[in-house]
Design a protein that fits this description.
Elements lengths: L1 H9 L14 H15 L4 E4 L14 H29 L2 E6 L12 H21 L4 E8 L5 H8 L2 H9 L13 H8 L10 E4 L7
Parallel strand pairs: 1-2, 2-3, 3-4
Helix pairs in contact: 2-3, 3-4
């Protein structure tokens, strides 16, 4: 985080790295307090924290299930409450939830991940409707296989899983993190001022297959 903050500052921007665990309400509330103290308001919230456990459903433990749901779903809930309150009061803001094509379709051995991402897709719609009259927009981005540390661990480390993922993508490759940037900037900006409650796929054609 400090490295990214340094890069932002080197271009004339401002950055405040804060270490936190999104599954802990007190951490999220502390983050919100620090951010508001430093900047006065938050205009854009991106809920991007996520974890995954690859395991057959019948072998999952309750602790493993809870760990994924607490980070991917409850963390989004905490952050939307902590930051959304100020947006609603100010009647301005854009919230972007990072979900997955697996929030819209099925797959094997990642049931808690699918359940959590599907829930965030629906939470996105619920908040979009509830906060529309306050001019707070809530949308989601659903990537397929994007080449990150997590997918390198869960996908690229197993040739069979990698080839199966690539077979689901008509473009026959994984996406790069930077390929999410255009949609992210669009949803954060006034260019999308009449868009709310949407889940936009950045998936190389996965959902069109």
């Amino acid at each position: 985080m400090e490295k990214v903050a340094s890069e932002i500052q080197s271009t004339g921007g401002r950055a405040l790295p804060i270490r936190m665990d999104v599954s802990r309400k007190e951490d999220v509330e502390s983050m919100a307090s620090e951010a508001l103290s430093a900047y006065g308001q938050v205009d854009i919230l991106v809920n991007n924290a996520g974890i995954n456990i690859v395991k057959p459903f019948l072998k999952l433990t309750e602790e493993e299930w809870d760990s994924v749901l607490n980070t991917n779903l409850k963390g989004c809930f905490y952050c939307c409450q902590a930051i959304g309150k100020g947006m609603v009061e100010r009647k301005a803001g854009s919230i972007i939830n990072m979900v997955s094509v697996f929030g819209l379709t099925g797959f094997m051995n990642i049931s808690p991940y699918i359940a959590s991402k599907g829930a965030v897709v629906q939470l996105t719609k619920a908040l979009a409707v509830e906060w529309a009259r306050h001019n707070v927009r809530v949308n989601a981005i659903a990537p397929s296989y994007i080449r990150t540390d997590m997918t390198r661990r869960d996908i690229e480390s197993d040739e069979r899983i990698l080839q199966f993922n690539l077979s689901k993508i008509p473009m026959r490759r994984g996406g790069e993190p930077g390929e999410l940037a255009g949609v992210m900037v669009f949803l954060a900006s006034d260019a999308s001022s009449f868009i709310t409650g949407e889940t936009i796929a950045v998936d190389g054609g996965w959902l069109a297959w």
